[in-house]
Design brief:
This protein is 15% helix and 39% strand. The protein is built from three helices and four strands. The protein has helices at residues 15-21, 95-101, 111-115; strands at residues 5-13, 30-38, 45-66, 69-79. It has a four-stranded antiparallel sheet. The chain starts with a strand and ends in a 16-residue tail after the last helix.
Length: 131
Amino acid sequence: MTIQSLTVTLSGLDSQGLASDGQYNLHASNVELAKALYHPDTRALVTVASVFKGYIDTDTHIETKEGDTIVSALNLTCGSRALELDRATNRKRNDTDQKRYQTGDKGFEWVKRVNTKPIPWGMEREQPGFR
């Protein structure tokens, strides 16, 4: 499985406009790239197809000087939501950690007890139930 990613470069931007963009946090903003299909004769919009859905992972502002002119660009590295599957997490799989996120959740209360119980796969049990 490969994680889909996309790099977008917006060039020819006004330096002042790019500077004002710096006051916004673009990280984790939603991105959708779509392809519009038009009828060749009538030029009417036929359909719009989504090509990529994800979020901005990194944004880099670039300024270069060409003669007396400063050329600004914005590089956006975008990743699909599958990128999150590849990242490490600080979450633990225990009851205390789960209660931080869902206070009424009781799903992990049984982990300590069930984790140590033998499961008799394919053999006869001496008595019904767990030992």
